[in-house]
Amino acid sequence: MADKLTPRHEDFNEWYNTLVLRADLADYGPARGTMIVKPYGWALWENIQQALDQRFKATGHLNAGFPMFIPYNFMQREAQHVEGFSPQLAVVTHGGGEKLEEPLVIRPTSETLIGHAFAKWVNSYRDLPILLNLWNSVVRWELRTKLFLRTSEFYWQEGHTAHATREEADFETRQMLDVYTDFAVNEAAVPVIPGEKSAMERFAGADQTLTIEAMMGDGRALQSATSHMLGQNFAKAFDIQYLDRDNTLQYVWTTSWGLSTRFIGAIIMVHGDDQGLILPPRVAPYQTVIVPIFKNDEEQSAVMAVTERVRQELTGAGVRVKVDNRDTLSPGFKFNDWELRGVPTRIEIGPKDVAQNSVALARRDRPGREGKQFVSQEGLANTVQSLLSEVQAALLERARQFRNEHTHDVDTYADFKEAIKTGFARVWWAGSDADEQRVQEETKATLRCFPLDQPGGSGTCFFTGQPAERMAVFGRAY
Amino acid sequence: MADKLTPRHEDFNEWYNTLVLRADLADYGPARGTMIVKPYGWALWENIQQALDQRFKATGHLNAGFPMFIPYNFMQREAQHVEGFSPQLAVVTHGGGEKLEEPLVIRPTSETLIGHAFAKWVNSYRDLPILLNLWNSVVRWELRTKLFLRTSEFYWQEGHTAHATREEADFETRQMLDVYTDFAVNEAAVPVIPGEKSAMERFAGADQTLTIEAMMGDGRALQSATSHMLGQNFAKAFDIQYLDRDNTLQYVWTTSWGLSTRFIGAIIMVHGDDQGLILPPRVAPYQTVIVPIFKNDEEQSAVMAVTERVRQELTGAGVRVKVDNRDTLSPGFKFNDWELRGVPTRIEIGPKDVAQNSVALARRDRPGREGKQFVSQEGLANTVQSLLSEVQAALLERARQFRNEHTHDVDTYADFKEAIKTGFARVWWAGSDADEQRVQEETKATLRCFPLDQPGGSGTCFFTGQPAERMAVFGRAY
């Protein structure tokens, strides 16, 4: 049997790094900072993509494909954008055997290309809004690789929209944050805090950045998706203007929003335990694994007949099923293997089950006997589907409870420092950028967001002692 | 009203280039050689992807994500591979503000990365076969851009498999060609000739390249997908070995196969006419467009009520429907617009139709009155679905007939030269590489393939006069 994972409380990083490899989600690519997403990780990503894509289309967005190459001068047109992204760029200097006249940047994000295209496509108010989404990969140079969390190339979607008015762009920015929140909570069972970023943490080129922040199993924060109101910054940098109903030239208002394979890191770190992954049923590549158990040919043929019938019934009911019929491995090894890989439910079928018209049904989120029951083969698809719903709800509830237990309202710096050792600190905040910077330097905690859900009223800033209008959530972040 | 397209017989290239832009399929990116695939083109690509992806999964393949960066030295390990791809590479020399120790190549194709990964992942015969597919984009430097056909970056899928035996790899190579043929014929209504490439036209690093070749509306050939038997070339270059059942180290056998957004070019050029695109119903983003017709508010409310009911009924039956309710355009303009964009059927609903419980139903492949009928609103979903099947079959039949009429069996060089002016020449062939090269230089026609479907027997090579065992198809190609 394979070695046990390092327990999470001993070394959370080590647990994570080993688990990603052992669960066969991803591997390191040969070029520094690159990642290979293996089939099991990619299937998880495809399920995430599908859940998001449906929501994007339901809100009127269309997918498109934009090139990976950006002329170098494009990056320089929006002052904050170039400042934010310059240190991270990968640059193509040679193509087709010759040195290029102007180097090309591999997109770190596509606002500049989008700005150029929108300027070409938009003439009148009739051309607005434009609601686009791109599924692609982007490159931001990284020296310290961590699979799914920090790689030079990562997969994501980037939404880009243009609107006639500020109100519409504001609505869009918030709408897409709501879409992300809905996805995170209801598909990935990841409770998130929707909120607004401070000026310091804003996207380079945005007037406002909204975010969803999640708490990982070690109490640290992970920014899980962002939605940016870009104001007229890119409209002015790329001259995106339209004739309004009064025949007057106006700049458009743009937004952008993204969620990446980083979110897979969130799923791993929110739900996983010392035995391995626990995947939320709605996004799990396999929702149930069937392990047939037999000792001789006679048992095998009886067991495999039931296994095949059960597989067909479940598949027909829309359950994603894997039958583990590897012939060189013991059932015990397989149980551990699929626990490590986080399949939310397991069905065991042995000769006794064949005789009794039953199966053993185990849930991944409750280890050992407590999570295992013997159920009838009759109506098994319904039984499994109910259990999957139960597991999905239980994962969300557990994560929510963990987060609540590790979030503390504090009003002194001493309590703040204590709180962010194990989780989030929620505080009244009236500090300046410099204050925010100082807190970060002294504690390594950053202002994750001003939650949209505010208690109301006002309080006293824990750091400056000044009156404060808003509460903020701080935490150490990935 | 917008200008008419250049008729195809006047200038096929001009017709194509204008149509791609006017039909809103794609646009030029700002960096030389790059392409923006606009939402309408991308929706077509998504339907192609889905049709292929189902077939790949049904034959046991799993999707994965591989990085775009290849260390420069990887390209040099397989001698023919580097020779074939070197002139087309895009090279990243700087990352994160610093010059890289070793430049990175942006993948022109991923055999080398796959070779490296397979070497890591394969140990024993139990790890085989590995059956992977990647959906991504690749970069091959191009100076003369032609949207969908020749761009520096293009979208595709690349399948990569490793097998224990030559027989299995041969089977896979042929199986995937059959998958492409099935897709082309039954989804895209593009009749293709499955065949084998000559040594000169093989993929750089392959022992054998299979291809499907289609004839465009101007008689020229388009290589529409390829499937390569890579032998042990990459296994040896990247040291991919496994322990067989007798505990002996063996090299694996690998294959690769791909279909790209080039295929969209084939769909445009096979089916389009002087009015614009004609999209095969099975891959068309919209299968039917509803144009409501009214003159006043009263008519509008009656017509829109029926339009909405029809839309719901069709959508519920799985038909992809677009309602064109743009309020500043006339019905006539809309008819032309959707004809240009190739929507296979059109439904017109006016006040008379409301009164008579009917709609006008037009098919795109038969212009004017001949293709238009008045049908009852009762059972309209069935009526539309039948018509879509009919259009799908008619497009395939028309393309097949065109190809057959423009394919000539010839046995003299004079007749050969005549045949390839308007289409394909089918000939007995026993020439050498040098002969093949000479034919190309003298006529611009290339050996497209040795069709898998051979007449049997033998004949006399039209070029060398030598006895020949196989017939070949020649044509001028894109």
Characterization of this structure:
The structure is a homodimer of 478-residue chains. The model of chain A has no long low-confidence stretch (mean pLDDT 97). Chain A folds into three domains: 12-271, BirA Bifunctional Protein, domain 2 (2-Layer Sandwich); 288-388, Rossmann fold, CATH 3.40.50.800; 407-475, C-terminal domain of ProRS (Translation Initiation Factor IF3). The first copy, chain A, has helices at residues 12-22, 39-58, 72-75, 79-85, 111-121, 166-186, 233-238, 262-271, 297-316, 331-340, 351-356, 380-405, 413-422, 433-443; strands spanning 26-28, 35-37, 62-63, 69-71, 90-95, 98-106, 130-139, 153-163, 193-196, 208-215, 221-229, 241-243, 249-251, 253-260, 288-292, 321-323, 345-349, 358-363, 372-376, 407-409, 424-429, 446-451, 459-460, 467-468, 470-475. In chain A, helix 2 packs across helix 6 (166-186). By secondary structure, chain A is an alpha+beta fold. In chain A, the strands form six sheets. Chain A has an eleven-stranded mixed sheet with strand order 3-7-8-14-11-10-9-22-25-21-20, with helices on both faces. Chains A and B meet through strand 2, helix 2, strand 3, strand 4 and strand 5 of A and strand 2, helix 2, strand 3, strand 4 and strand 5 of B. Strand 5 (90-95) of chain A pairs antiparallel with strand 5 (90-95) of chain B, so a sheet runs across the interface.
